[in-house]
Amino acid sequence: LIADALALDQRDAAPLSNIIYRQTTGNAYYSLGFLFVLAKSGFLQYDEAAPDASTRWRFDADAIQSEFRASAQDLIHSKLMEMPSPVLETLRYASCLGAKLNELLLSRLVYNREALQPAIQYAAKHRLLVPTPTSHNDWSFAHDAIQEAFIRTIPEAEREWWHYRIGRRLW
Q1: What is the pLDDT of residue 130?
Q2: Hey, which residues does 45 pair with through a beta bridge?
Q3: Cβ(90)–Cβ(105) under 8 Å?
Q4: Which terminus of the chain has fewer CB atoms gathered within 10 Å of its CB, N or C?
Q5: Helix (H) or strand (E) holding 123
Q6: Nearest Cα to 123, choosing from 72, 78, 155, 83?
Q7: DSSP letter string over 20-38?
Q8: What span, in angstroms and rounded, lies between the C-alpha atoms of 81 and 62?
Q9: What are 29-54's pLDDT values in tens digits?
Q10: Cα-Cα-Cα-Cα dihedral of 74, 80, 85, 88, to 10°?
């Protein structure tokens, strides 16, 4: 996956692939997310001046290994917590409802209904949600790992309260 994504020879990609596998336990979604984190933080760099495609991506495996001791799930969790609060709130509620969500149902749950549509559009733009082909009001999480990641943004001690609150608002 890593060699293909970066157009590298398997042998050249092996050190990075091993680090990413250890961080993500092989989960493709977390692997790609971790690649984006590495690129954004400068640990994975693209060199347009390189003579051929197989040498354009550069990385220092030792630097990556020493810098990223947290798991990819922890890194993704911290990125989710940095999202605008209306988006985070909306996707927390959505994650509690399941893999698919309906805007009308979700509008009954969120506190700021005016922020619902912009929150969904933000999530779609960042490929967290994808529209379902059957209805323009229905969405799905792009991957089950995304739904699970949003559930994990709710502190475990509060999850029961979130589900109770959802039940009360829908009743």
Answers
A1: 93
A2: 58
A3: no
A4: C
A5: helix 116-125
A6: 83
A7: HHHHHTT-HHHHHHHHHHH
A8: 28
A9: 778 888 888 888 888 998 888 777 66
A10: -100
| Selection from 128, 125, 42, 143 nearest residue 91 by Cα | 128
* Strand ranges for 11-153 from DSSP E: 44-46, 57-59, 100-102, 129-131, 138-141
Q: Which residue has the tokens 């990609």?
A: 13
pLDDT value for 67: 78
Whose tokens are 């020879």? That residue is 9
Task: Estimate the crossing angle of helix 144-152 against helix 72-81, to 10 degrees.
Answer: 70
Residue recorded with tokens 């967290």: 128
- The model carries a pTM of 0.65
Q: For residue range 86-128, list pLDDT tens digits in order.
A: 999 999 999 999 999 889 999 999 888 888 999 999 999 988 8
